[in-house]
Design brief:
By secondary structure, this protein is an alpha+beta fold. Helices cover 24% and strands 33% of the residues. The protein contains three helices and seven strands.
Length: 128
């Protein structure tokens, strides 16, 4: 069974270093969460939510999933995207967003209720 658990940034960065294909760990964040497999008693994924990378976006109203990694466990990505959106909403943020590469389909984003907002850059900007 997979459940959501809070993660310290240090813990999330360990998983990012281990599993992320093209990004390094992050320096700061608003919050981080993980997906924990209660059967195996290990974290199988992590999401880091921080300030938007684009400077002109209002960082007091909008947060961005800056990193999301899993070990490939089925549904872990979708669980993380849905949980980050719920947490951001409960914290009072008006919008949560993320970006994906051009060669990524966004299947987990679609499954967790996110919408493609802007397809101009790379894989596009997504929001929940």
């Amino acid at each position: 069974m997979l459940i959501i658990r809070p993660l310290e940034l240090r813990e999330a960065n360990i998983l990012i270093s281990k599993w992320h294909r093209h990004h390094k760990p992050v320096v700061g964040h608003r919050f981080s969460i993980g997906v924990y497999d209660t059967t195996r008693k290990v974290f199988v994924g992590a999401a880091v939510v921080g300030r938007p990378v684009a400077r002109k976006i209002n960082y007091k109203e909008v947060v961005e999933v800056t990193r999301l990694v899993t070990d490939g466990t089925k549904n872990a990505c979708s669980i993380l995207y849905a949980a980050t959106a719920r947490a951001a909403k409960e914290m009072g943020y008006i919008k949560i967003q993320t970006y994906i590469l051009e060669n990524e389909l966004g299947t987990s984003l679609i499954a967790s209720g996110w919408k493609l907002e802007n397809a101009i850059c790379g894989g596009g900007g997504w929001m929940a």
